[in-house]
Structures are given as structure tokens and as C-alpha cells.
Amino acid sequence: MSGLQSIATPAALARLRKRRAAERRFRLYGRAAIAFSVTALAWLLFSIFSTGLSAFTQHWLNLDLEVKTVSGDAPNYRDLLADAMAEEFEITIDELAQDASVRGELLQILSASEATAQLRRRGQVEPRAGAVTLRIPASDLTDQFLKGHIDRGLAPSQRPVTDRQIEWIDQLVETGRVERRFNRALFLNPDSRDPERAGLASAIFGSVMILIIASALALPVGVGAAIYLDNFAPKTGWGGRMISLVEVNINNLAAVPSIVFGLLGLAVFINFFGLSRSIPLVGGLVLALRMFPTIVIASRAALQAIPDSLTDSALSLGASRMQAVFNHKVPLAAPGILTGSIIGMAQALGETAPLLMIGMVAFVTAVPASPMDPATALPVQIFLWSGSAEVAWAERTSAAIIALLVVLMLINGLAIMLRERLQRKRRR
Amino acid sequence: MTDKPSSDRPKFTCRDVSVRYDGFSALSGIDIDISDRSVTALIGPSGCGKSTLLRVFNRMNDTIANARVSGTVLMDDIDIYGPDIDPVLLRARVGMVFQKPAPFPRSVYDNVAYGPRLHGLSRSRADLDGQVEKSLRRAGLWEEVKDRLKMPAPGLSVGQQQRLVLARALAIDPEVILMDEPASSLDPIATARLEALIEELKTRYCIIIVTHSMAQAARISDKTAFLHNGALIEFDQTENMFTNPTDTRTQDYITGRFG
Amino acid sequence: MSDPVPIYMLMIILALIVGAYRLAYGRAARFAQLAIGGMARPRAQPRHHARLAAVMAGLAGVCVYLVGLGLRTHEPSVVGDGLWLAALVGLPSLIIGIALAKVRPDFAARAHIERMAETGLMLLSLVAVITTLGIVASLVFEATLFFQDVSVFEFIFGTHWSPQTAIRAGQAGQSGTFGAVPVFAGTFLITAIALAVAGPVGLMVAIYLSEYASTRTRAVVKPAIEILAGIPTVVYGFFALISVGPTIRHVAEMMGANVPTQSALAAGLVMGVMIIPLVSSLSDDVIRAVPQSLRDGSTALGATRSETLIRVVFQSALPGIIGAFLLAISRAIGETMIVVMAAGRAANLSANPFDAVTTVTVQIVALLTGDQVFDSPRTLAAFALGLVLFIITLLLNIVALAVVNRYRVRFE
Ligand SMILES: Nc1ncnc2c1ncn2[C@@H]1O[C@H](COP(=O)(O)OP(=O)(O)O)[C@@H](O)[C@H]1O
Ligand SMILES: [Mg+2]
After folding, report:
1. Fewer beta carbons below 10 Å: N end or C end of chain C?
2. pTM of the entire structure?
3. Which residues are in the ABC transporter domain (chain B) (predicted)?
């Protein structure tokens, strides 16, 4: 028997079959792990997008109402509105008197707060009774019903809309007084108790201010620290040991849970320095501390990629160390520093827990005008909305998430573009 | 168990063997017969395809994603690239020692026992102990490490490491040993030991060795193959090759005019 | 802002800085002109003198500003705005005077300003140390206050967590019971579930991608993993709340069990998914660091690919992989939003993954959100929990980073 066959005994072949099976199993585990991760991502994105996309449109009602009286010193606009709508749907006074819940149900199908606000405004201009045309958002109930999120086939006790309300809504649709429009309010309004009026404006302004403050602080400080550690820090002896402690410290700080930074902000900025809660200034300060280690680490990596020969040649021409570093090394490392910093900013944009600690969970119904006004931030707004059980809120929460994800994608895309461009330049 | 093939029957027969890396042809049209129980040296300027040819014999080129091997390679008249040949089994018959010794980061014992454990070659612990000792003796390392079999292998000297990986290869009881510039990271004393060892081993094994030292090829090999730009230029008895090479390129290379 | 005074003060500082720069520049420029007229060349250019003066004035101004701001907030009676203003103008002016006197041709302003810049840069690198010290100081300070009301022993070993209500007689009126064992147990349970998901999956993803996957698979899966890493945790929390939790409840219902939507399992699973990218990228680093020569050695001995991976690559990379897992644990312990949204707030002492449990971070959020007076044991308890969280994650990080870094250089 020759070599190859001599080892191919039945026992050896059986063993080989087992080993090959183990190999296939191992590969299968790998596939399963990949499939698990990709499926998880797909499920997440699907569940967010399928619930959230419909929130980018909103149903509006065009109502021509006959308002009876707008006299007297303090008209009750809700009652006026309910009466006018009753007339619209041909509900007699008797019916209204018999069934006390009719008025309530009538007001539930449109955005009552928006409608009364419009009536009030009109009443101030021309305090007369008469025909009024209202163009107002449908209530979240009507909106969800028209979007098909509420099943009309369910028993009346199982669904939030009553049979009567379904009748009225159908009547509005048939007469062409319902239209579906882009939900501008979602981006232009501040927060509200009514889903159809709630928007992200306060959160967006808050996030932008927080991000500007945080980057304005963390970027120069972080890059400066990285430049020092890379070029000026003592490498040996007692000082060198201190510096290596500083570096260990920075690496560890990057891995400290972000909620701890929130506690720091609460204790130092709010309790000790007496700044108010819920303001973007404190949020920016806290996130600056959170971003700082990330930026130092990214900037150091970018600086270390620049060969020393560059500064050496500048030094040999009589430049001071400071000049050599700032005029020759830093400009070359700038794209890398920028990329790292942008990714740090993207992370900061998604931070929620530290902002909760400093009280940015307040219900803010005004768009903040300065960093000292109460505000929320985009991720915090998501958290706040997620706490409400109604379908309309889940829809809007998902829409806010979509907005956040799109912004994050754009930011990261920018970083990737910068990195590619940098690499292309290097290769040349 | 193994019946001894007559010494004139070649261990390996290569016919029209070519290797491509993506578009680049590293070896083309190699015809060569390697005899058993002898030392065959592969020489040639760096980049000419020596390592590539060596990897043809144990199908290590299979593990390189962009490498494609074509042609026929027979080992004892069996096509080792045939559909029913599992490279795992082939490699249990054809051991290999690399340029830089790379012992696994574990004990000396575990390094040598790695192959036997993998292939289930030992029935008991005592059996395995015996195999480890035998392989270490054959590799000439036993006397030096017998008292520290549990020490981590990367702590050995480079010369010892090279003999350890040789012992590791011998432990699976191969018939062929491939060596890719095994002495290039060794000092002269360790190199001399290794050469003496090869001299000893060739009575049992078919040895193919890549070397860039002409003197080494002349000292230890029975036959020498000269490769140039992926082609086999000359293949002959070593003394013939070094005394009167037929090709001018061989002559230039041996006399040190290039490479 | 309702109080404009601090902003006016800042503007005054700015004016002082600009003034210092101009004055010093003017003085130095005269020397420079004299130098052209044949005198010895001055040792620095006007702009160096000017920068030095401006920096000195600015430093003095900012110091006075911060001291004044602090005193004003805490002791409004001591510092009137007038006194603040006087100090803010007076001290920097004095400094500017000194700086101007120093503007002489033989004064090496450039060397001075560079030394100051270097010192400034060094101070920047100390921000990290100051932050860490600030964290330690504030956590320890508030926690100490807490432990004046509640004994350390009760906090660490007590099994009843109920911060809202006074359970036992003899305790201070508004304070509850603070036995944190259920909180720690919940944290542990969720961390264990998360690691059970992220550990094997992350490791196998790293291995499959670097050793087996085709270029096409890699081109799809790598970005997917990166997206997983970039999704904010509040989004994961919402996903757990609206999709994973209800699905688990549904499945359990079909099997006849009654399970709450908020459960340790839902939070742990989703947290595991969140941590997959961390584990896989760290494992990928250490697996790649195992030299090819070791793999080739094993392959040449007739090992199959998975045998090489398990017996050689894993074995050599083990310390690094353990380090990666430690970092993953630290991340899971400190993760907040997923558990706040998906794990519930009930402090159940339970090892059943289908129960709602609570964690350290959830309790910190619960104790600190909403309106309450500071310094009540309720809010102070949050800092005690924060201290525990910080210490544990810090220890994990130090060990893990040391292991990972030492391992990375070992083969290089
Ligand atoms: N994995 C690979 N991919 C592409 N080209 C390769 C690869 N390995 C080797 N080569 C090329 O093949 C040729 C032969 O390589 P090799 O066999 O290692 O040469 P030698 O061992 O004689 O120095 C060289 O030109 C080398 O650049
Ligand atoms: Mg070679």
C-alpha cells in the first residue's frame, strides 16, 4: 500500500468524516450568528419604519360651521364648537340634551384645541356669529382611524372610536372634507399634549444648541490635549509615568457609562454652580465632557499617522517645536481629526441618559430661544413620547426616530466621505 | 505496514504544473520527479516560485484565496489533486517546516502532541508520551527539553524552536517533509545541527528543501532543481549541477552573478 | 436669560483683552521701528508681545469672573455687582500695566508665549483627570450624605428596595427602604442575558466575517453591523418596548404562560443585540493579531479550518477575547435607556428572565427624574447607586483595557 492509502483506514476515514461534520457545524454557527444580527437589524428597522412612516402625513378637516353666538364676555368656545358640529351632522337639540356624551364625542373627532384656538382668534377680530370655515387637523383618533390603524370590524367596546363617530367620519370623507397632507407640525411645532399638534421643534433646537455647545468646548480642548500628548508630553521618567496615567485615564473615561456623566453634571453644574435644570447649556457642558475622551483618542490616532520626519525637517530649519507642530503636523492630521470628531458628535446626538439626569425631560411647549431656556433634545423627546400608550404616540415616536436615524446617517456619511477623500489623498 | 516502494520509483511526479495568483502566473509547465528517501533542493532567485512549488506538494496553495493550481501531481501514483483526496489527510502524510519557526503559544509537549491529538493517532496518554519523545529524539531536541516539557514553547531559542516545529511535523508520522528556507533565521551553529539532522532524516523520509544558500544545497542535497521566473530551468544530480550546469542562467546564478 | 449682568461682565473682559493686545502691539512696534533705525534687533516681534499681554489680561479676567460668578450665586450678599465690576476691571488693568512695562527689546516674548501655550495644552490634557476626579468627588460626596441616613450594610445586603415609602417603623418620615440587592440582582440577570447573546454571536460574527465570508457577504454584513453600532440606545429601548416585549408575551401566551411586556428577557435580548458590534469589532482586532504563521503551522499539520480556529487562534487570542467580554459586561451594566424602557421598575428579587426586574441605572433614573427636593434620601440614593456603578465599571474597564492592549502588542 502506498502512503496516501495507508492512512485512509476505515477508522481514520470515520474520524475524518466526524471532523468534517464538526467543520460544517462550526461554519453553520457562523452563518447563524450573521443571520441573527442581520435579522435583528432588519426587524428593528422594519418595526420602526412600518409604525413611523405614516406619521409624516396627517389628515386635515375642512369644516364650514354655523357658529350661533359669539357674544358675551367669556364665550365657551368648546360648547360653541360642539353645537356647531352637532348642527353640521344634523343632531337635534333633543338628542344633545338626552345624551350628554354626544358633545364629547363630537369634539373628539377633530383637534378641539386647535379649533377653539382658531375660533378664539376669529372672535377677537370680528366678534359676530355666522358662518366660519375651519381648516384644522383631525384628532389623533380620526387620523389613526382613517390611516387604518383602528379596525372598524372590532366590537365597539374593543376600539377607541364609537359607532357614531365612525358614521360622522365616513360622512366627512364622503363629502370630500378630509384631506391628507404632509405633517408639517411634526417639525414646526413644539411638544403638545395632543399628538396631532405635537412636534419636534423644541427638541431639534435643543439638540442643535447642545451639540454646538458641546463641540465648541470638546473639540478645541480634546484636540489640544491630543496635540500635547502626542508632541509635548514627557516620554520618560517621572513625568512620563504621570502622562501614561493620564492616557490610561482618558481610555477609561471613554468607557465610563454615560449616565455617570449625567450624575456629574447634576452634582456640579446644577447643584454646585446653580445653573437651571433642563437647559441646553448644561446639556452641552455634560456632553462636552462625554465627547472629550472620544475626540482625544480619535485625534491621537490621526496625529500618530503623520510621520515624525515632517516636524523634524521643520525643526532643523529653525522653527520652534510649537511652530513645527502647528504649521506642519496639525494641518495634515486635520481631516482625520475632523472625521473622528464628527463620529463623536453623532454619538453625542444619540445620548439620552445623561440628559435625563440634568432634568431635560420636562414637558416643553415653547421653542427655546437661547441656551438658557428649557428645552428637550431629540432622543429625550423620543423617550418622552414612547411613554404614552396610544397608537398615535407610537406612530410619532417612530417618526421622530426615523428623523434621528436619517440625521445620524447623514452625519456618518459625511465622516465616511471625509475619510475616503483623505485616504485617496494619501495614496497619491 | 507501508510497503517500501523501490527507490527508482519517484515519490512525486509533477506533469505540466502551473500556479496562478489571480492574473499573475507564478509557476508554469513544471515537470519534475522527486525521489523518495533523498534530499531534493529547490534553488533560484527570490520570487521565482520556490515556495509556491513547495506548497504544491501538500496543497497549502489551497488555503491561499487567489491561488489556482493546474496540472497533475502524483504521490505514489495517486493524484493528490483528485476529487477523492482530502487535503487534510494529505497534509498528515506530508509535513512542512516554515522559514520562521512559529511554535504555538503553549507548552513544548502540547506543541508536539498537537498533530497526534488532531488525527487521533494515540490510544492512551502513555502512547502519546512515547510519540512525543520519539519525535523530539528524531528532531534532536529531546536531551535539551526532556526536563521542561511543560514550559511554554515560545521561550525556547530560535534554533530550538525550529527543531521543535520539525518534531511537531514528525509526530504525525509523515513520509515527506517540506522545508522552506528552514535555516534562514538560524545562526551557523544551529544551521550545522539542522543540516546534520537532515542528513539523518533522509534515510526515512523524502525531503524537499528550499534554500538560497548554494553551499547548503551542495552540502545536503542529492538532487537540485533550479527555478527561474516560474519555470524549471534545470534539474539534475547536485554534483552535476554544481560542476557543469548546462544552462547559462543556472551557471550565472550558482556563481553568484545574479540573485 | 433673566439676569444679563454676567454677560455684560464677559463683554468687559473681552474689551480688556482687545485693549491689552493693541497697547502692547503699539509699544512693541515702536521698538521694532527703532531697530530698523540701527539699534539691536528686538528678541521678539510685536505680535508676540501683544499676544502675551492679551493672554495675561484674559487669564486674570476669567479668574475674577469665575470667582465672582461662584460667590454671587452662593453668597449674593457678600459680592455686590459693583465690587465684582471693580475687581474685574482693576486686576486685569494692573496685569496689563505690568505687561506693558515688560515690553522691551530684550524681552523674549516669543519664548514666554510658547511656554505658556505648552502649559495651556498640558492643562487641556488634564481635563480628563479633572473630570474623573469630579466624578469621584461628586459621587462620594453625595453618597456619604446618603450613608448618614442609611447604613452601608443595609444598602449592600438589604433585600428590600422601596425608596418611595417608609416600610419599617423608626425610619425617617419620608424615606423608604434601601436594600439594593434586588437592584444588583436585576442588573446581573439582564447583563447575563445580554452577554449570553452578544458574546457568542459577536465572536462568531467576527470569525465568520474574517475567515469564511465571501467578499459579497462581507460587503453586506459589515455595514449592517456598523449600523447596529450607530443606533442610539433610546431607539433600541423603543424597539424592545413595541416589538420584542410584545412578541415575547405573545409567544409565552401561546404556550400558556402569562408574561409581562416588560421583562428581563426583552431588555437583555435587545441589549445583547446592541453589544454585538462591540464584541465583534474587539474580537476581530485580537483575532487578526494572531499571526498567519501560527495558522499555517496548524493547517500544514492537517488541521481543518475550524480546528485551527478553535485550537490555535482562539487559544492564542483568549486573553484578548476575555478582555472584549469584560468591556461588553461593563457596557451592559452601564446601559440605561434600554432597561429604563423595557425592563420595568419593579424591584423583584427574581432569577426568572420572564419577570420584570430593575437595574442600577433604571433606579438612578427613577429616583432623579420628576420633581423632588435635592438632598432627600431618595435622590442621594441615586448617587450611592451611581458610585457603585462607577466603581464596578471602572474596575472592569481597567482590567479589560490592560488585557486588550497588552495582548495587542504581544504579537507585533
Ligand atoms: N498570495 C500571493 N498573491 C499574489 N502573488 C503571490 C502570492 N504569493 C506569491 N506571489 C508571487 O508569486 C511569485 C512567487 O512567489 P514565491 O513562491 O513566494 O517565491 P520564492 O519563494 O521563490 O521567493 C512572486 O513573484 C510573488 O510575488
Ligand atoms: Mg519563499
Report:
1. C
2. 0.87
3. 12-254
